[in-house]
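User: I'm curious whether this sequence folds into something compact or stays loose and floppy. Could you predict its structure so I can see for myself?
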Amino acid sequence: MMFSRLNSCVLSLLFVTNVAHGGFPPSWYMNALEKADPNTLGYVARFEEGACLITERELKDAVANIIKGSEIEPKPGRRGEVHLSVGVRCLDVDQKSVFSLSIRFGRKDSDSTVLYVKDYGEIFSAMEAETVLHNIKIAVEAAMTDYTLANFDR
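Assistant: Here's the prediction. I'll summarize afterward.
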């Protein structure tokens, strides 16, 4: 089956939004990640589309375990200050599962949430749950590296 125009447009948009975000983050971004109590971090992990290969529980457990691995206590929810937002979108393209990970820090102020520009996510194809979880782990670890640099190593 060929790509539909919608699938092609979605994949193109996802690719463009995930163009290299490498390099050391700017100081304004590192300042934005600073917290009064950096030993806890709120997080939200959700599927933006119907999930493929992994469950929501597996996603939430993986994110919480990676945060714990950074010696930070994970707290489900946005918790007012800086939090980690992890979104997984799955598309079925030519009988293959294509994933888009959106992993960003954000801040909840009163009724709105602001997600910061830097996205640690990626787009990839996978046929096994282990591959999906591995890619989530790598991306969340990269985000946690910036978080620990901003809060502990400056």
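Summary: Residues 129-151 form the longest helix (23 residues). The beta strands are 40-47, 73-76, 82-93, 96-109, 112-115, 123-126.
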